[in-house]
Design a protein that fits this description.
It contains five helices and 20 strands. By secondary structure, it is mostly beta strands.
């Protein structure tokens, strides 16, 4: 009458592991409509646990999972990360499956300092699949996450070609909703704050996806649309920054420390079409306008040159050179 217990020891891809699995007593398994499973796997400095319930006909299942590793590098064989990666890794959540629909609730991922909480859902609407993803994060530390990257092969791979197809898969059959919110993104010398992004993909079209963030202390808003149907995708985007301190941004990027440039408003429109990066560059059109502000250039042993800016305009039509015009005093 006791629960069935299974324990095993062995090796998996050269790593010693221990596995335990608990379920119903053998007599209860005969009539059970739902099979409960509780298991734990230990090895390679990591621990994984599941708590599941599976319908007898396998049409429904609920699976809770929990993974902890003191060093992500110990899981390099399975995750493809650098074996010497020292970042701690933790992942947990609950998966519910019902027929062709599934969802992940209470998902959480933490790698080093970076974290994410997420919910993912796949449903069928009028027979067509739709995927919804919602993610929030307090911090994403990009330089720290780059330490997960495995070392490059001794033979340098060929450089990506400008003629490589950007979208090798047909997205016209996928409907998706995506929402992302990140409090802080560390990019080495620069940081983004209060990043928000939302997008809807319908029948191969991205509908007016808004993006918001603070860059170098200035509020930034952007919006993008894309038509991914057919052989030649088309994209369009606009970008607006208010009270933008370009000099501060250049100093944080270590690009220049002798330029101070502030603008009341910066607006950029971009559009292009093409199936490859080369085609996108060939058909790109850009129009940028900087309004108001002041430009100061600090020169050694010379007075600082200051210019009050009314407008600066940069633009290029497809296949034409970039043109610039400025007005100020």
């Amino acid at each position: 009458g006791e629960p069935l217990r299974i324990e095993a020891r062995g090796t998996l891809q050269g790593e010693a592991i221990q596995a335990r699995l608990h379920t119903l007593a053998p007599a209860a398994l005969v009539d059970a409509d739902t099979l409960p499973l509780r298991g734990e796997l230990r090895g390679a400095g990591a621990r994984a646990r599941i708590d599941a319930a599976v319908a007898r006909d396998a049409t429904r299942a609920t699976i809770g999972f929990d993974l902890d590793a003191a060093r992500a590098g110990t899981l390099a064989r399975w995750l493809g990360v650098a074996p010497e990666a020292t970042l701690a890794l933790a992942a947990r959540g609950r998966i519910d499956v019902a027929g062709d629909a599934w969802r992940i609730d209470d998902g959480a991922l933490k790698i080093g300092r970076s974290d994410a909480a997420f919910h993912v859902r796949r449903t069928l609407e009028a027979g067509a699949p739709r995927v919804t993803v919602a993610m929030r994060s307090a911090l994403i530390d990009v330089p720290e996450l780059e330490t997960l990257r495995p070392p490059r092969a001794a033979t340098r791979p060929a450089a990506p070609s400008l003629d490589t197809t950007l979208l090798p898969y047909d997205l016209s059959t996928i409907d998706a909703d995506l929402g992302v919110g990140v409090e802080r993104v560390v990019l080495g010398r620069m940081e983004l704050e209060h990043v928000g992004f939302a997008a809807k993909l319908r029948d191969g079209r991205i509908e007016a996806a808004p993006v918001a963030a603070r860059v170098a202390g200035a509020p930034v808003a952007a919006r993008a649309t894309a038509d991914l149907r057919g052989d030649v995708p088309e994209i369009a985007a606009s970008f607006t920054a208010e009270r933008f301190d370009a000099g501060l941004l250049l100093r944080r990027l270590a690009v220049a420390d002798v330029i101070d440039e502030t603008a009341e408003r910066l607006h950029v429109d971009f559009s292009s079409r093409g199936a490859t990066l080369r085609e996108l560059l060939e058909h790109a059109a850009i129009d940028a306008t900087l309004s108001g502000g002041q430009l100061a250039i600090r020169m050694h042993a010379l007075p600082t040159a200051v210019m009050d800016v009314d407008t600066v305009r940069l633009g290029a039509k497809p296949g034409e050179p970039l043109r610039a015009a400025a007005r100020g005093a």
